[in-house]
Amino acid sequence: MLCVSALADPAHGVRATQMTPAATCREHPEVTWTCTSTDDRPTLDLWWKSVGSPVVQPRTAERAAPTRLVVVSWNVHVGGGQLKDLAARLEATHVIDGRTAVVYLLQETFRRGADVPETIPPGLKVPTRIEPTGTRTQVSALAGTMAAFYVPSMRNGPDIDESREDRGNAILSTEPLEDLAAIELPFGRQRRVAVMATVRVAGRPYRFVSLHFDTNRDRARQARDLAKVLEPLAAAGTPLIAAGDFNSLRGRRDGAHEAIAAVLHEDDCGSGWTNVWPHRLDVPFGWWRGRIDYLFTNGAVTGSRSCRTLDDRFGSDHAPLVWERALDQASN
Fold first, then answer.
1. In what order do the strands lie in the sheet with 204-212?
2. Which CATH number fits domain 31-326: 3.60.10.10, 3.10.580.10, 3.90.70.10, 3.30.460.10?
3. What helix, strand, coil percent values describe the chain, rounded to 5?
4. Is this prediction's pTM over 0.85?
């Protein structure tokens, strides 16, 4: 992995470092930052300057030792997905309770206000604002008392007043988050940053990744670069769970899916659709409506588990994937 020459930006609390092999490309006091490409560095830097710094929020409520692990992967449609309603459903159906460790791998979360830069770099055409109707919930509010790690990938529209926003991936957890990492992927149509964190569940560390690839063919290149980062982690003894919105128009035959499947194992969460026809203009004509959200694990994730796709979108344009596993002393 190669990175670019030093570029200070105190507003972000992050700076790019000198180009060296296997170095991080931006520095943050709590986040390890890896960039997988140097060819498109100037473009990625422009997009990075248009967004705020990562959100790192500690857990504020103690919980009993968990006996169960539940992982939810969900594109929340820039705040449209109502996490409280989803959690209420999972509680009502006895999927989660006070002894469940819950990790949410979220895509298209957003933030609004003063933590987003007031200015947009000259020459940068920011993405169109996505603003679903109804109640929208920012990432910090989604987290509540949970631990949270959010890294914006892009601006959410050109606004520069108090309503300015950015959007990206996040990990929320009822258990503390450790070893926070951002993986900045090659530029395609848009800037994409996968997020990774460790959660200790019943004393054992698990590594989690929330990802979201481009809607065009660049998603395959982004997935291949992410796979190169995940491959040595997948071979290690720590359980690894990676999930998100692959935007894989060809389903499991898509290059993005195939790249991750080359280093991880897909846990079957169903064969039906996970997204609905999008009501926005940043997707290609002929968008295939079907399964574009997937969850993968490595060989260190052992024991009986299950995964399913819920039949309710809870205000989003994607259905959540819910992965469950009971914990025991022998195989937790």
1. 7-9, 14-16, 26-28, 31-35, 177-184, 193-201, 204-212, 240-245, 293-297, 265-266
2. 3.60.10.10
3. 15, 30, 50
4. yes
219 three-class SS: helix
Which pLDDT does position 207 carry in this prediction? 98
Alpha carbon 56 to its chain's center:
14
Burial (CB count <10 Å: 0-12, 13-18, 19+), residue 138: middle
Alpha-carbon torsion 183, 268, 79, 287, what sign?
positive
pLDDT tens readout for residues 2-49: 343 333 344 454 433 333 333 468 889 999 999 998 889 999 999 999
Per-residue pLDDT at 254 exceeds 70: yes
Residue type, position 323, single letter? W
Residue with tokens 């997009």: 47
